[in-house]
Amino acid sequence: MRRTSASLLAGTLVAALAWASGPSTPAVALDPSPGVADLTQDLNQILGDSRLTIARAGVVVKSAANGEQLYATDAGKLLTPASNTKLFTSAAAVETLGLDYRFPTTVLNAGRKVGSVLTGDLVLRGTGDPTMLAEDYDALAAKVAAAGVKVVTGKLIADDTWFDGQRLGTDWAWDDETAYYAAPISALTASPDRDYDAGSVIVSVAAEGGQVKVTTTPETDYLKIVNKATVGAETDVLIERQHSTRTVVITGTVADPYQEWVAVDDPTAYVSSLFRKALAAHGVRVLGATTTGAAPAGASELARHDSMPLGELLVPFLKLSNNMHAEILTKAMGRKATGQGTWSAGLKVATDFAKANGVQVINMRDGSGLSRRDGFSPDSIVQLLTSVRTKPWFSTWYEALPIAGNSDRFTGGTLRSRMRNTPAANNVHAKTGSLTGVTSLSGYVTSAEGEPLVFSIMLNQYLSGSPKDIEDKIAIRLAQFSRATATDVTAQLKAADQGAAGDLECSWLKPAQC
Questions:
Q1: Average pLDDT over residues 431-458
Q2: Which residues are paired to 217 by β-bridges?
């Protein structure tokens, strides 16, 4: 049953009174239809979980068809979003940069070429491409050799000036500094594999011949490996880069192969070492030292690599919740809008985009959600999700969101192990978010009657294990929503308990463990 104007006013007044009475007041139905009243009762019961007694919970559900609010509790409260921040970053990036945007990486001749000798400097210039692999730098080196260059008399200059020199987010925790999900941001960076975790290296250990063998992906001598591990009856090993150094210390015991993704301390220096080694492998000798700085005016292009378009990059970015993609895109937005590849410039672009699309409560401190000072209200997230449905790029962005219960890693993403065998499976398209004491899930679901719904669930300040199963129960209930009739959801909600994720979303667990 649709609301009349009178019932709409009544619902609005009831909602206002419920909000004013404080966070402990259960949400009430905003529509007198049996289905909405039943939904309200069920969601109130789900949110009555004892794990949330001392926590904060904000939930908003609206019809995407007409904007009608179906459920709300603490809709306007500022809460920590974790990786739900990426909804804002990704949407603003597509709007600002376009789906066809590519990151170019170029090699420049900053001297004079005579025969096979380049008299002067060779410049490697980046613009932040997070998808560059060691093989891509090797291909650039091969192009330099193919251009006839055998000797460079000057320096190898690494030009990372497309972005500023601030490598880490202002509010990021110091003890995350060596973690791949908080790697330093640079306009010159490299990823170890096609998850594209920019600025990191995979360090692998295995027991061979009574000793622990250590390898890296890609092969690199940039890191200093200190191997103190021994072969043992079980694998209980710690692989950790020492703070603010290139030294990786390995301790513990190894029985079975194990690997860890480790952030490098300086992506520009790391890339320079990869590229210099690749040049040598292709017969190009650089006589001078490796330095950093801007390419001289008038330097000519010798080789170029363009990234995949942003429309394709959205898949590993959003499906796997890649923090570095978010931060690189933030600086890229700033560079395009103001000529400044900085967090402040990029965050202003993202914030202005959000406000232009009706978002009221927003505090963006980074692009990924690593900062605990990021803040959004559930209503603001729903407003963004509703507004972008009219954008010409929406379908591409929507399909890049994780899809519940789909086991394919680049389809289901961080939701691939959740809500399986329920009405929410292959239905819910939503962004996850995880920090200690924080979990969120916001996105889209189609009801049992085919009505498109938009929702945001934000749970903060709990002290228990992760209550992600509460998010799943709500999403499953929304997939079963019918305006006309009450719904028996007991069996399906039990499935949420069976498929609930652990404390961290899958993207934080390398290799894939959920």
A1: 97
A2: 202
Q: Reply yes or no on whether 83 is catalytic.
A: yes
pLDDT 10s digits, 238-256: 999 999 999 999 999 999 9
Fill in the DSSP letter of residue 66.
T
| CATH class of domain segment(s) 5-98+312-508 | alpha beta
CB within 8 A of 267, min separation 6: which ones?
160, 167, 183, 184, 185, 186, 188, 189, 190, 198, 199
Give pTM, 2 decimals. 0.90
Q: Are the beta carbons of 336 and 97 closer than 8 angstroms?
A: yes
CATH number of 104-165+267-307: 3.50.80.20
| pLDDT > 70: percent of the chain | 88
Q: Which two tokens stand for residue 161?
A: 């000036």
* Mean pLDDT for all residues in the chain: 91
Residue ranges covered by each domain of the chain: 5-98+312-508, 104-165+267-307, 202-262
pLDDT of residue 12: 30
pLDDT value at residue 229: 98
Is 86 considered catalytic here?
A: yes
Catalytic residue among 321, 380, 447, 466: 321
Q: Which of 62, 63, 77, 86 is catalytic?
A: 86
Q: Is 321 a catalytic residue?
A: yes
Q: Which of 63, 83, 90, 447 is catalytic?
A: 83
Q: Do domains 5-98+312-508 and 104-165+267-307 have the same CATH topology?
A: no
